Amino acid sequence: MTWTPLHAQIHRTIRARRLFEHKQRLLVAVSGGQDSLCLIKLLLDLQPKWQWDLGIAHCDHCWREDSQANAHHVENLAKFWETPFYLETANEPINTEATARNWRYQALTKIAQLHNYQYVITGHTASDRAETLLYNLIRGTGADGLQALTWQRPLTDNIRLIRPLLEITRSQTEQFCQEFNLPIWQDSTNQDFKYARNRIRQELLPYLQTNFNPKVELNLAQTAELLQAEVEYLEQAAHKLRQDAMEEKINNHLNHSLRLNRQILKTAPLAIQRRVMRQVLQEILPDAPNFEHIEKLTALITASNRSQTDPFPGGVIAIVQGDYICIHQQR
Question: Mutual orientation of helices 270-284 and 216-245 as an angle, nearest 10°?
């Protein structure tokens, strides 16, 4: 086996960040594109050192005419590498990026549960991290959206999603694939400019690299890394403040008011107040709260007595009663 600087870097990253340990069962998501082929080749080469049990999973979204051929291509690679292969095929074509992403993670989790894999490994890179930061920034988001691609997160109580390539750029994975003559499957949808991410990848990032900073991908990825640590800290601080301020626990049916002590909340910086309110709203609203939802609830911390919000989605309202913000289902 040829040991490249990329092998050494990923070996160090896995060990330094404790992404996973020796003798673990790893399910590797392989689309057939350059990033996922680079990932599986690296892990296969490192396998003797770490003694992992590796499996390859492929998700067929059925949104391209060649998707079945793509799946067969990955299956043949798995056979060549003598690695277990698992295929999940969508029951009907999936036509949006968000729907595809949700279905894909559900499918990977299902495979991991059925076959006792402790980790799901994906080939997201620093380039993906930069694109995600720009995509969410353009749509409008806070720090959480800007650091959305993290090194790891739980999929279930027993299965974690791991992204070992977040310090590697797409140009590096391409060079690696060329060096080892890996058979990349070209995804035609990557050239379809109706998807915003493709325009960011093909037009915006190259423009920024040419006209502003040739290392813009890595710099944006590093910004996401810094934000990740800050978001974790802020979320922990907000959780503690919320526990201190909440005097009644909300139940599943909102039969009782949730009461937040305004005097306790007033002692915190605005950034923490907003996070407390977002955490509260995430539990009681049918969908994720937006900026306006969070702001109108946060405003009640300093509002006059008897002030109240108009109904949130689902019919929940919040009203100021002395030192408390009371949140309950509108009758």
Answer: 80
